[in-house]
Target: Ferredoxin, 4Fe-4S
Amino acid sequence: MALFITDECINCDVCEPECPNNAIYEGDEIYEIDPTLCTECVGHYDEPQCQQVCPVDCIPNDPNHVESKEQLMDKYERIMAAQA
Model:
């Protein structure tokens, strides 16, 4: 599943540069994650990098975008093909 950023976000700017898919962007009030680009770092890392660096632990799994590891890998492969 994709991840999302809760309103507990303090806009510290550490998550955005860690995202290998450029899924994290600055929203109107807090950072946001584009679920069409979020692969939970599948294909890049063993764990979501944004969750690893978030100082307030405000990046949980998004229950509205449930995906298996296989679906996340397929999404990763589509993203990489589109960037090539």
